[in-house]
Amino acid sequence: MTKEVFIKDVMGKPTTISKSAKITEALDKMLAEGIDPLIAVNNNSVVGIVSRQAIAEKLGSKQNSPLAPTAIHVASVVEEEFTSVYPDESINVLIPLLQHYKLVVVYDGDHKLIGQVSAGDLLKKFQPENGIESAIKFQPENGIESAIEKVITIEADERVVHLRRRMLDDNITRFVVSDQGKYIGIVTETDVAVAMRKFRESVKDQHQDHRIRNMIVRDIMTAPLISVDPSASVSSVIDLMLKKNISSVPVVDNGRLTGIITRRSLVNAL
Predict the structure, then answer these.
(1) Half-sphere exposure (CA, 13 Å, Cβ side) for 228?
(2) pTM (global) more than 0.70
(3) Fold of 132-268
């Protein structure tokens, strides 16, 4: 990284949500603006962040099933752990931070919120130099045990309750969906959050327990699967992610799933 480039050169305008707002408002804002997470504020002070994953967990919790989604507030899903930088710091500090956080908050000298930086903001300005291979996260059988993220698949007819259990227990945020040996889509925490909201709004409480057990991955996945060939350039992958507003792209070689590229893995490769 060039030392003459600073945080202020790559940061974007902060996107905030009041901690007193409803989580449905937060989810709508995330989807409309293509942002995850949002910065949660209270009286103009940053109190944490709110992510699609946290909203998905809250809406999918049986404990909250009697509550309508519009009755649940952002305060209940705020993650208080976040990190911050100052605009005149070198962007060299961003890479290790964005390896662990989806978003970095930017304060001015008076500790006033003035910006934010995501992996997407950084990748608009900089790209890995070593090609697509440096950003692919392979499956365990490919022998790279140090991979941060793994390509994990799930069958299209698997029940959503089992999907959620795997997400929670193994801290998995995305699955490539397979059906009879073919890869037909992807399911992420965003799909779960949107599906749980629609489900809770349309199904009465007394019927939820039974109906949710009949919901399968095929019902909520994003399809068709957007993927790239191993020969794709880094710039084309980044352009695809930004244009489609997606956080990951599976790599498929002649019908074989060989790995996955994520915004985080691209940052790691810088």
Answers:
(1) 22
(2) yes
(3) CBS-domain (3.10.580)
